[in-house]
Hints:
It contains eleven helices and 13 strands. Helix 1 packs across helix 9, helix 9 (235-247) runs antiparallel to helix 10 (253-268) and helix 10 (253-268) runs antiparallel to helix 11. It is α/β, with parallel strands linked by helices. Strand 2 (14-18) and strand 3 form a beta hairpin. The longest helix has 16 residues, at 253-268.
Amino acid sequence: xxxxxxxxxxxxxxxxxxxxxxxxxxxxxxxxxxxxxxxxxxxxxxxxxxxxxxxxxxxxxxxxxxxxxxxxxxxxxxxxxxxxxxxxxxxxxxxxxxxxxxxxxxxxxxxxxxxxxxxxxxxxxxxxxxxxxxxxxxxxxxxxxxxxxxxxxxxxxxxxxxxxxxxxxxxxxxxxxxxxxxxxxxxxxxxxxxxxxxxxxxxxxxxxxxxxxxxxxxxxxxxxxxxxxxxxxxxxxxxxxxxxxxxxxxxxxxxxxxxxxxxxxxxxxxxxxxxxxxxxxxxxxxx
Length: 287
């Protein structure tokens, strides 16, 4: 049976505090909202709080066309991501979890609802929840362990990787996983034919790794460099938004990464992780 919707993003919603400026943030929202505005039918599986900010956040997501039926209001307040540096590094921000990831680990799995989507993307997903989702039959999975790897390497689960057709890392995350696997060979992360690993490397562009009959293959995609970098917040999420919008509309991997690179460039040229209408139009034209 053909999936009714395109992309379900499983990950955190957060309050971003960027140099004192409060914004709606979190990996799941940035990917889902931008992908939706680029033409995909998207949904989020996550947790919100019961405070006013969370209520406003749920309303914003609904008004943006996001399916929030798998979002639970089980927290008191949202986690907070405080951006403290303009450097595009994991250490450039501080994460205050506020019970988000333990609560997500306990979320029920609605198998039928999840099967409505063509692709389920796990982004910074707590390990227990990621493992349980990976055990659901007939799901097409994409996996992004995310920046929590710097705190807990169990956020990369080889079993979840084995169930995923797409796996995403940035440079720091990829280095951590290579070290945890005691290897320098990207083929050990790819592991099997039919799986694609995408590593974003900032100004150095991104690399696509896959194997054919066990032999490692690599495609490189150059970055689109911005004349003015205003805010790195959400750049990686915007990359994924562009990638998924192109990939799920039938573009090849290299072309999808090029669209992702353009989305990342446009993101750092503005403030915040939700792309402007002007930026979205440029990306749509590229797709």
